[in-house]
Amino acid sequence: MLETIKFQCYYCREQLTDATRTRDHIWPKSKGGKLYKMNKVYACRSCNRYKRDLTIEEWLEILTTLKPTKKNQKIWAKKETIIVILRLLIEYLKYNNHENTVKTSRRVS
User: Fold this and answer.
1) What ranges make up the beta strands (E) of the chain?
2) Element holding 64 (H helix, E strand)
3) Which of 33, 49, 61, 96 is deepest in the core (most CB within 10 A)?
4) What is the pLDDT of residues 26-63, one digit of tens each?
5) What is the pTM of this model?
């Protein structure tokens, strides 16, 4: 798994337990993501559920325009932390040339 801590959500850094820990594919399997170790991270249920089968670029785009509602309260509270992590992850993956993880060439700011 991508240098992730088993007891902390990769995206929001929330503490995880066996009950709240899930595995997320950075590049979704449904969009051609590989099943290799570098494409997986531990995530809390709310981040994994909200990200669904979005790429990290798609999720970042949604989060940057997200308006608070009752439905997205959990994600809204963690939004700024997640945005920073996603931007760092995108740059890391581009720098290290991880195929099928970051497929966009546009710069995310």
Assistant:
1) 21-25, 40-44
2) helix 56-64
3) 33
4) 999 999 888 888 888 999 999 999 999 999 999 999 99
5) 0.77
pLDDT of residue 3: 55
Kindly report the length of the chain.
109
* Angle CA 71–77–83, to nearest 5: 105
Place of tokens 């089968």: 53
Q: Are 47 and 75 in contact (CB under 8 A)?
A: yes
> In a 10 Å sphere around its CB, with 0-12 CB exposed, 13-18 middle and 19+ buried, how is residue 26 labelled?
buried
Between 1-5, 14-18, 54-58, the lowest mean confidence (pLDDT) is in 1-5
Q: Which helix (H) or strand (E) holds 91?
A: helix 73-95
Q: Domain extents for the chain?
A: 21-95
Hunting for tokens 């990200």 — which residue is that? 51
Give the whole-angstrom CA distance, residue 71 versus residue 80.
17
Six token digits for residue 33:
């993501």
